[in-house]
Design brief:
single chain, 148 residues, mainly alpha, 65% helix
Length: 148
C-alpha cells in the first residue's frame, strides 16, 4: 500500500458555500429587485422560503419603498395596519411611530416638494459654527458662511 498516484487520487471538491451573512440578506431585502443578480434572486428566495417572517418583512419593505418612489402616500394607513398586524420587531414600532404625525408623513410620501436643500444648508452652517466655536469673532463666522 503506497501513496495514491495522481491519476487515482480523488479531486479536491470545493466545499459548498455557507449560509449568507446578515449584511448580504439585508442588502437583498432593501435593494431594488432589478439591481439583484440572478444568483442573488435565487439565494434570497431560498432565505425567504426558509423564514416566513422574513418574507413578510421583505414584502412590507418593498411596499414602503414603492410608496416612497411612486409617491403613493394614500396607501400609508393600510401599510401601517398591515405592519402592526404582522407584529415584527422594529417594523411594527416604526409603523406605530408613523401614526404620531400621520399627516406630515403622508404629505412627505405624496407631494413632490422637499425641504432637503434647506436642511443641507442649515447643517452646513451648524458645522461651521461648531468648528469656529470660541475661536473667533462673528465677522469671520459670517465670511466663512458666505464664502462656502
Amino acid at each position: 500500500m503506497g501513496c495514491p498516484t495522481p491519476s487515482t487520487a480523488a479531486p479536491n471538491p470545493q466545499p459548498p458555500p455557507g449560509p449568507p451573512n446578515v449584511r448580504q440578506v439585508t442588502g437583498w431585502l432593501t435593494r431594488r429587485p432589478s439591481s439583484l443578480t440572478e444568483d442573488d434572486h435565487q439565494q434570497l428566495k431560498a432565505v425567504l422560503d426558509h423564514r416566513p417572517e422574513l418574507a413578510t418583512t421583505h414584502q412590507l419593505a418593498r411596499d414602503f419603498g414603492d410608496m416612497l418612489t411612486q409617491q403613493t402616500g394614500v396607501l400609508l394607513p393600510a401599510w401601517i395596519d398591515e405592519a402592526i398586524v404582522a407584529d415584527l420587531p422594529g417594523l411594527s414600532g416604526f409603523a406605530r411611530s408613523l401614526t404620531n404625525d400621520i399627516d406630515a408623513v403622508t404629505a412627505g410620501l405624496t407631494l413632490r416638494w422637499s425641504s432637503g436643500i434647506t436642511e443641507a444648508a442649515v447643517n452646513r452652517i451648524k458645522k461651521i459654527k461648531r468648528q469656529l466655536y470660541g475661536r473667533t469673532e462673528f465677522q469671520l463666522l459670517r465670511k466663512m458662511i458666505l464664502l462656502q
